[in-house]
Amino acid sequence: MSRSLIELNNLTYRFRRKDDPVLEDISFSLEKGTFNILVGPGGSGKSTLCRILDGRIPHLLRGDLTGDVFLEGKSALDLEMKDISCCVGSVFQDPETMFATLTVEDEIAFGPENLLRVRDKIREDVEKLLGLTGIGTYRHNLVWNLSGGQIQKLGLASVLAMEPKLIILDEPTANLDPASTSQVHELILSLREQGMTVLLVTRELDEFLAEADQLLVLDRGKLLYRGEPYGILSERGNDLEQRGIWLPETVEIGLELRRRGYPVDRIPVRVRETLELIQQLNLVSEGTVLTGRDSPTRDETASPLIDGRGIRYSYGGGLYALKGVDIAVRPGEMLAIVGRNGAGKSTLAKLLIGLNKCREGSLNLFGKNSRRWKVPDLANHISLVFQNPEHQFLTDTVADEIDYSLQSRGVNDPEERIRERGKMLGQLGLSEEAERHPFTLSAGNKRRLGVATMLVGHPEVLIVDEPTYGQDREMTRTLMTLLREIRDRGIAVVMISHDMRLVSEYADRVVVMSEGLKHFDGNPTELFDKAEILESASLEPTLLFQILKALGEWGVTCRGNIPRTETFIKLLLKEGEVSLG
After folding, report:
1. Residue 178's domain is classified under what CATH number?
2. What does the alpha-carbon distance between residue 382 and residue 8 come to, in Å, rounded to a whole number?
3. Which are the contacts of 549, defined by CB distance < 8 A and separation ≥ 6?
4. Beta strands 368-369 and 360-365: pairing type?
5. How many domains does the chain fold into?
6. N or C: which end of the chain has fewer CB within 10 A?
7. What confidence tier does 296 reach under pLDDT thresholds 50, 70, 90?
8. Under a CB-based contact definition with an 8 Å cutoff, are residues 130 and 139 in contact?
9. Radius of gyration of the chain from its Cα atoms, rounded to whole angstroms
């Protein structure tokens, strides 16, 4: 009896008959009760592949598809959509587009109700899933009033309620805080133990990769590699890096040591494995001192562009999203605001750009009380790239979207607009997408377009909500290099992010929020050493910091800021400021 739940044979797909293939000659299987991870750089075809696996292609979305797709031995191309939906559940990259009801509780119950399940069973499952995903407090909330992270949790709960045999998770943790991400990972392993097949599509891998049964690597529509994760990393790890795929810091360390001639037979994934490798290679000993660069210093003398004291804000019903927050933003700094989902980060951003008005506490924006600003006037000083960039798109093509932003900022010369538009499209890798409708872009490309439309002006403060959502390694570095250049021009950049590696590598200062309060304001290195604050805010230190901390327990002194693996390797191999005590 076949163990395959889904099998693809020589599958090729084009949007239209004359187009180049989006997917070409794809063959693989997903075995029953296995956990599979699909990775690839932006635009590699991951989301399109998911649409084929869950039946949206070709049953709902047309195109030219050749090859075979088998679901439990039957041709999925011949099955009806309702039959596929009972077997395959999919959490979309943008879960909002899945919702069919008004409230959280009703959304989870909607699928089982359509399957005519017994009422008591539906109620029992709704309660279980509300608790499992941590959104029980919001059970009566309107779905459009949820934060990005809560929306993702609701999307997951609503699909799990259908009890599918295969669940496809397309970037399910992109807007989740690190602790919630860990909970989703634990849930995935639990689902596998219960016999469910899981396909996780993800931008960034971590220690969780070690738990997968199969790793699938897609690039430019072709399936390059498939197999056991450790084997692929050992044999093809360098190629994955060159293709812009994010790898765990542990893997980066192993690959770099091998490139430098050290005998690394098995590339480490877990922190423990990396430490064992360092010990095996005798790279440090008790008394070694690793001296990184000085942590960023804060210029307290510069007058803040934004100065908030004791800010409180409620959406009504006596519940406060902000409960007395102090915030200052100064010229030319890269400030990260982090915290658990629902901590008040997005609410604070809306206050800063004038969408919400500060009624309790004081908030001065660019030398004037925030209540005296009109939103159009304030927009000349501060820009926000939304968590969902499509909410701010206004035109029918990518090129027109940038043109509109240029015109709204007074650039009326057509030739100048063409030059600026071409420059921005090229810088963010959107040139080939210029004539596409913004809503048809991938989530990563929507993010880039959102950044582009805000950068064409000359704001004093740029706020980016989850700047790297949907971005591969190379585009993340392109975006962050661009944001650094903006910062170096004296513009303050505020990024709201759950990506602690991003915070570690790029932020000058980090503010931690939890339950509507500010719990920390300092540099990332200081933050990662404060376990109580991390736990209270549902944050976790980077894998690299965990390695540094463990080395400290071995008697190795780690001084200063060691934000990325390249720095760590140089210090480890005594190519930088390294001394032996």
Report:
1. 3.40.50.300
2. 49
3. 529, 541
4. antiparallel
5. 1
6. N
7. low
8. yes
9. 24
Closest of 115, 159, 65 to residue 56, by C-alpha: 65
Instruction: Report the pLDDT value the prediction gives residue 577, as an integer from 0 to 100.
Output: 45
What one-letter code names the amino acid at 228? E
E strands in 160-213: 166-170, 197-201
Return the ∠ at Cα 352 (arms to 155 and 470), rounded to 5°. 35
Alpha helices by DSSP H, listed for 456-580, are: 473-488, 500-506, 524-528, 531-536, 543-553, 565-572
Task: State the average pLDDT over residues 498-522.
Answer: 92
Residue 63 lies in a domain: yes
DSSP H or E run through 222: strand 222-227
The two three-digit tokens of residue 312, written as one number: 């409180």
Could you report the per-residue pLDDT of 389-440, keeping only the tens digit for each? 777 888 999 999 999 888 887 788 888 888 888 888 888 788 888 999 998 8
Residues spanned by the domain of 216: 4-236
pLDDT at position 304 over 70: yes
- Do residues 544 and 249 touch, judged by C-beta distance below 8 A? yes
Interior/surface letters 405-436, b for 16+ CB within 10 angstroms, e for the rest: bbeeeebeeeeebeebbeebbebbbbeebeeb
Q: What pTM value is reported for the model?
A: 0.85
Name the DSSP class of 382: E
**Do the domain assignments include residue 271?**
no
Q: Is residue 52 part of a domain?
A: yes
How far out from the chain centre does Cα 249 lie? 16
* Predicted pLDDT of residue 2: 59
pLDDT above 90 (res 538): no
Where does the pLDDT of residue 1 fall: very low under 50, low under 70, confident under 90, or very high at 90 and above?
very low
> Which of 58-64's residues contact partners 24+ apart within 8 Å by CB, and which partners?
59/84, 63/13, 63/14, 63/15, 63/16, 64/13, 64/14, 64/15, 64/16, 64/17, 64/19
Q: Hunting for tokens 């409230």 — which residue is that?
A: 103
The reported pLDDT for the residue numbered 196 is: 93
What does the alpha-carbon distance between residue 41 and residue 444 come to, in Å, rounded to a whole number? 10
Q: Using alpha carbons, list the distances in angstroms from residue 21 to 14, 18, 256.
A: 5, 9, 35
Q: What is the pLDDT of residues 129-155, one digit of tens each?
A: 998 888 898 999 988 888 777 888 899
Per-residue pLDDT, averaged over 95-108, amounts to 91
Distances (CA, A) of 138 to 103, 155, 318: 9, 14, 15
Which three-class secondary structure state does DSSP give residue 248? coil
| Residue of 191, 202, 229, 209 whose CA lies nearest to 50 | 202
Q: What is the pLDDT of residues 209-222, one digit of tens each?
A: 999 999 999 999 99
